[in-house]
């Protein structure tokens, strides 16, 4: 039985000298496994007398219990060491300064269009982008600008062929939408327009937002209210504004709107008016029942005024130093 008494010391020694979970598993198999040392001891007891069996099996079970307990403790110990090593290896230094994340920014023109859309959404308008390749009928004729009309001279048009062109104004959408919808309606049409022009205040492509209301009792005073409120909102202050009588073939009466800049100069920012009865006739809207008002706004122009930009071309030169200035607007 000396052997048995020594056994615990041997096992404990082995357990304490194991450096990893794998070694511990080997010990487990060796002693506690099906063919392990403890089971073999038990098998060997068969030939012993009843009293001896009782005595030795008690000792064997005691050592076995101690072994299980010790292996469990060692397993926890080793797991803790493993975890500690892993944490040390994977630790990150949270005191390091953050790293710069390069980020794009919204183009100031898109920013303005977004602002304009949001303003008009609150007044119940829907927004539609519309076509840029247009035909002569929707861009000119249906808007009461027939061939040889002097108003065509202001639109240095890019023609694809005798009929198709790059739209010179978002007013083309007035025709398309009034033809395909039944009044009442409130729409804005933001988008690109094209004219063959290039200097510090003109680019061959620029943006307009067209507005259109067709309702039963809409009149010029509603138009006036909307434009005043839009301008005050866009510039975030009450600025001097005037409606100046003007002429557009597709509206009557027509007006241009100027705002005062630098306390001395009037600058035109949009055209507007009551939609001409001939235009309403072209789209089969009964002018005796419905009236319509419209406006067309140059997005570059008001964006330049809002941010003090002096050359319209800077919007389209893709100079990051310019564009990045609008990161936080
Ligand atoms: N389409 C005109 C232009 O490009 C602007 C305009 C004026 C639009 C009067 C309108 C309007 O809807 O009623 O010059």
TrEMBL record:
UniProt keywords, alphabetically: Aminoacyl-tRNA synthetase, ATP-binding, Cytoplasm, Ligase, Magnesium, Metal-binding, Nucleotide-binding, Protein biosynthesis
Required cofactor names: Mg(2+)
Gene3D superfamilies (UniProt xref): Bira Bifunctional Protein, Domain 2
Cofactor binding, per record: Binds 2 magnesium ions per tetramer.
Main location: cytoplasm
Sample GO molecular function, one term: tRNA binding
UniProt record, GO biological process: phenylalanyl-tRNA aminoacylation
Catalysed conversion reaction: tRNA(Phe) + L-phenylalanine + ATP = L-phenylalanyl-tRNA(Phe) + AMP + diphosphate + H(+)
InterPro entries: aa-tRNA-synth_II, aa-tRNA-synth_II/BPL/LPL, Phe-tRNA-synth_IIc_asu, Phe-tRNA_ligase_II_N, Phe_tRNA_ligase_alpha1_bac, Phenylalanyl-tRNA_Synthase, tRNA-bd_arm
EC number(s) reported in the record: 6.1.1.20
Subcellular location: Cytoplasm
A Gene Ontology cellular-component term: cytoplasm
Highest taxon in the source lineage: Bacteria
Domain Aminoacyl-transfer RNA synthetases class-II family profile: 114-317
Family: Belongs to the class-II aminoacyl-tRNA synthetase family. Phe-tRNA synthetase alpha subunit type 1 subfamily.
Subunit structure: Tetramer of two alpha and two beta subunits.
Official protein name in the record: Phenylalanine--tRNA ligase alpha subunit
Organism of this sequence: Buchnera aphidicola
High-level lineage: Bacteria, Pseudomonadati, Pseudomonadota, Gammaproteobacteria, Enterobacterales
